[in-house]
Amino acid sequence: MAAKLSYFMTIELPGYTADFANQVYSRSYTGDSKVTTSDGKVVDLTDVLLLTHYKKPSEQDVVEFIRRKAEDVRGSAMLVGPRGERLSSGKNIVEEAIKTLPIQMQVDLQTGDEKLYDFIKKYATAYPLLEGEARSQYLVVDYGLLPTEVIEANHKTGKVDGINWYRAAFAHDQFQAVGLGLQWQAKILYEGRLPSQQDMDILLKHSTNDSQTFTINKKPYDSEAVRAVLRSIYAAMENNSDGLAGLQDGSAEALQAVALSPIIKLHELLERQMRAQQEAQATLKGARPAVPSGLIKP
After folding, report:
1. Rounded CA gap, 15 and 278, in Å?
2. What phi and psi, each to the nearest 5 degrees, are found at residue 79?
3. CA distance 247 to 75
4. 144: helix, strand or coil
């Protein structure tokens, strides 16, 4: 299959090879982590970086997305198998979560019930945009370790077709079990440019995990190792006039993840209400009516 034509500059990271331009970068691992085979042979490892970006969804984005998905769910027919079992509709995870809500709640999501959407806004990790305010944009850096032999073998068979293969490898149970796969994911605010290296050094010095400017999903983390990776990215971005435009855009996936959270909360609320109702019914069934005092024989 022919390579997709790109109109953007290729981001070149010092010290890394671009396995897939503007997506996947790698280099031989020279750190202290060691993995051995069952016969004691040390496994050669490869450092892998995945670069993407996304725009943080706003509260309005989440509300409109859920309303639109509720419309899609209400307008689609349920697929039923030969034994009456419900079949997968091929819809995304948010639509599937909405479809298993009570019918009236689905209708309320579709029509924009105010109280229900107050609940949605409460549990969605998104904020309303002020008039004229732009959505925050983030550079996402996934850093992982993979066996070199595995990467090479899958390249030879044509299975490594881009960033998605590496994402799947990062999450593979077999690699995770021995400390390989995804090591950390960092998100860096991008407002036409990255934060100054001085600001980033301060955040790393204090082992910051979650701020408006920088978040990382590992606690604790090796600040010097993270700094070394980011130093290469900063050097590359200084010479890149396209900014983040050439990177894969994960905004749709980010919106779906944020929208799913309040729908899950709705399911949890319904489960608690159902349990409370069942417990109340069990209590009523177990209660023995008092015998009128006049019927008790002395």
Report:
1. 62
2. -90, 125
3. 35
4. strand
Q: Give this prediction's pTM.
A: 0.80
Closest CA to 125 of 253, 272, 267, 260: 260
| Residue 52 parent element (H or E) | strand 45-55
Is residue 216 a contact partner of residue 209, using CB atoms and an 8 Å limit?
A: yes
DSSP per-residue letters across 249-293: E-HHHHHHHHHHHHHHHHHHHHHHHHHHHHHHHHHHHHPPPPPPG
Is-contact 140 52, C-beta < 8 A? Answer: yes
In angstroms, the CA 87 to CA 272 distance is: 27
Alpha helix stretches (DSSP H) within 75-186:
93-99, 103-111, 114-123, 148-156, 163-170, 173-176
Helical axes 59-74 vs 114-123, angle rounded to 10°: 120
pLDDT in tens, 154-163: 999 999 999 9
For the chain, how many residues are written? Answer: 298
In this predicted model, what pLDDT tens digit does every residue of 244-279 receive, in sequence order?
888 999 999 999 999 999 999 999 999 999 999 888
To the nearest 10°, the Cα dihedral for 157, 161, 166, 172? -50
Contacts of 286 (CB under 8 A, 6+ apart): none
Instruction: Tell which residue, 69, 58, 78, 60, has the closest CA to residue 109.
Output: 69
Cα distance from N-terminal residue to C-terminal residue, the chain: 97
Mean pLDDT, residues 173-182: 94
Amino acid present at 172: H
**Which residue do the tokens 């496994």 mark?**
43
The residue with tokens 């809500």 is: 101
Give yes or no for residue 2 having a pLDDT over 70.
Answer: no
What 8-state DSSP symbol labels residue 80?
Answer: B
